Amino acid sequence: MKTLKIAIQKSGRLNEKSVELLKNCGLNFENYKSSLISPVSNFPLEILFLRDDDIPEYVQDGIADLGIVGENMIEETEVDVDYLQRLGFGKCTLKIAIPNNSPVETLADLGGKAIATSYPAILEKFLVKNNIKADVRMISGSVEISPGLGLSDAIFDIVSTGGTLKSNGLKPFADVMSSEAILIGNKNIENKDLIEELIARIQSVLRAKETKYVVLNVSKANLQQVIDLLPGVKSPSVVPLAEPDWVAVHTVIPERDFWDKISKLKQAGAQGIVVMPIEKIIV
Ligand code: ATP
Ligand code: ZN
């Protein structure tokens, strides 16, 4: 069987979460910072550690079959690859930012202005769509210092908390794109079965992350009230306890309604609530 190759970031913001995701999929490999390739001992897969800038093209050209990279890099490099799965980490927004004292008030005011960025392709597309003719200046690092140096009137960059903007006298002006890490695949992958197996494992890890396993005790008198609060995957398991009028209820709860649900369960008579992380959910 041909060995698959997956490209992930060697070091940087996506490295740790990418490694964690693959390990949670049950893949055994050494994560040596110095090696470029790590074989997986229990799955026909090799992991390539690369700069994120190179991952989209490696996957497009078939040097790697799969890759984990920010959507922003895919958009910027304009490669032709399959989007296989959003991964829920590496979330960020790409914004145009302007100096606090900038005269720019509307998008049209950007006409004729110089905008510094490491993402010229994404910015050009945005400007064309909005019919703005501006001067896009490619800078590969520390874009945020360029207005202060008199090199540009605005910047276009990844913004997460806005702290870097603030400390450089800049303010967010327009959101252009939001991004998260995504699993991409080569368009002509031969080994579809293996890819499907890997995607199924990834999905089971992602689903498990979004849910908690909850066990609680409730008197039979309050059982229906508690069950009504738990739409769950299917109906919850109800287990008898030594105490004859009491039962234990086992169920899963989505992370996003967690605190709301827990307080309602308590009001409905639930006691001894135990919450546990879930490793995987296979459907
Ligand atoms: P490399 O050395 O691999 O080229 P890099 O310095 O270009 O790394 P990182 O800063 O590690 O890249 O960011 C990698 C990706 O992480 C970004 O392209 C983006 O998709 C995502 N990301 C998420 N949050 C942030 C953030 N706050 N700042 C920068 N990137 C972020
Ligand atoms: Zn990079």
From TrEMBL:
GO cellular component assignments: cytoplasm
InterPro entries per the UniProt record, alphabetical: ATP-PRT_HisG_long, ATP_PRibTrfase_cat, ATP_PRibTrfase_CS, ATP_PRibTrfase_HisG, HisG_C, N-reg_PII-like_a/b, N-reg_PII/ATP_PRibTrfase_C
Record field: catalytic activity: 1-(5-phospho-beta-D-ribosyl)-ATP + diphosphate = 5-phospho-alpha-D-ribose 1-diphosphate + ATP
Domain of life from the UniProt record: Bacteria
Keyword Hydrolase set for record: no
Regulation: Feedback inhibited by histidine.
Compartments where located: Cytoplasm
GO BP term (any one): L-histidine biosynthetic process
Pathway it works in: Amino-acid biosynthesis; L-histidine biosynthesis; L-histidine from 5-phospho-alpha-D-ribose 1-diphosphate: step 1/9
Required cofactor names: Mg(2+)
Domain Histidine biosynthesis HisG C-terminal: 208-280
Domain ATP phosphoribosyltransferase catalytic stretches: 51-203
Xref: SUPFAM superfamilies: GlnB-like, Periplasmic binding protein-like II
UniProt-listed Enzyme Commission number(s): 2.4.2.17
GO molecular function, one term: ATP binding
Keywords: Amino-acid biosynthesis, ATP-binding, Cytoplasm, Glycosyltransferase, Histidine biosynthesis, Magnesium, Metal-binding, Nucleotide-binding, Transferase
Chief site of localization: cytoplasm
UniProt key word Ribonucleoprotein: no
Functional note: Catalyzes the condensation of ATP and 5-phosphoribose 1-diphosphate to form N'-(5'-phosphoribosyl)-ATP (PR-ATP). Has a crucial role in the pathway because the rate of histidine biosynthesis seems to be controlled primarily by regulation of HisG enzymatic activity.
Family: Belongs to the ATP phosphoribosyltransferase family. Long subfamily.
PANTHER family on file: ATP PHOSPHORIBOSYLTRANSFERASE (PTHR21403:SF8), ATP PHOSPHORIBOSYLTRANSFERASE ATP-PRTASE (PTHR21403)
NCBIfam families per UniProt: hisG, HisG_C-term
Protein name: ATP phosphoribosyltransferase
Species assigned in the record: Mucilaginibacter paludis DSM 18603
Lineage: Bacteria, Pseudomonadati, Bacteroidota, Sphingobacteriia, Sphingobacteriales
